[in-house]
Amino acid sequence: MVDRGKIIDGKAIAAQLRQELKSEVESLREKGTVPGLTVILVGNNQASETYVRGKIKACAEVGIHSDLVRMSPEITEDALLDKIRQLNVDSSVHGILVQLPLPDHISPDRILSEIDPDKDVDGFHPINAGRLVTGLDAFLPCTPHGILELLKRTGIEIAGKHAVVVGRSNIVGKPISILLQRENATVTMCHSRTVDLKSHTRQADILVAAVGKLHVITADHVKPDSVVIDVGMNRDENGKLAGDVDFEGVRPIVSYITPVPGGVGPMTIAMLLYNTCQSAKMKSR
Length: 285
Ligand code: GUN
Prior knowledge:
Layout: E1 6-7, H1 10-30, E2 36-42, H2 46-62, E3 65-71, H3 77-88, E4 95-98, H4 108-114, H5 126-134, H6 142-153, E5 162-166, H7 173-182, E6 186-190, H8 197-201, E7 206-209, E8 227-230, E9 234-235, E10 241-242, H9 247-250, E11 256-257, H10 264-284
Helix pairs in contact: 1-10, 2-10, 6-7, 6-10
Keywords: Amino-acid biosynthesis, Histidine biosynthesis, Hydrolase, Methionine biosynthesis, Multifunctional enzyme, NADP, One-carbon metabolism, Oxidoreductase, Purine biosynthesis
GO molecular function, one term: methenyltetrahydrofolate cyclohydrolase activity
Pfam family, one: THF_DHG_CYH
């Protein structure tokens, strides 16, 4: 009898990672480098406020210095670009993060392309995206990198497995598909125009759901004893945080599953701290 329905505890794995990073930060500080992250928050989107608060709190926990720059929703694109240019040349700043989404009159592409790629701890700059695809050293985007750590630290074999990714965003779907290929998985990409989604997802040894829609993956979408990673952060009919996967329906069928909350989410923040440490380390050499 196969052991089914095991939960991948992202909260615990992220706490372990933060513990490891805390010692790295200590040794950097002993050598005279205080890792520093600046977060820019434009406007007052409630979800962004919550995410940013989590990031700032996590920095403090591991000893990373953080600054929160708040900007009015009416700020011009030029003023935001100027702020980024100023942070690019500030040697105490190792990581720059512009929280998305931005107001409609500001182009996220222009803004993200202005960040020094060596301080791009979100891994969203086109140079880092290109480096990831070509297999060069790069800051990896935090959510996909966090998913990889969850799989590795849980001891899940990736090489030779069939991974199916649902969702093709630049932030999650595309980069996780590349990372899984790099780990020698065979990867299928599904998206909003995929015909007969189930016929693909049912073949997945590892299924990554990154759609952003409540419960699009149900019991009849999964293969017995597979591994399911849920990247969704949706609100259910009672206003509760819930994933792209119908957790209760899917859990009894699969070998491993990530919960929402407490799965991928905490890992995203942990990998941001990791990238900020990496950046500080590069500068301290
Ligand atoms: N908005 C939602 N997720 C993210 C993220 O990972 N980074 C940034 N900068 N903004 C986001």
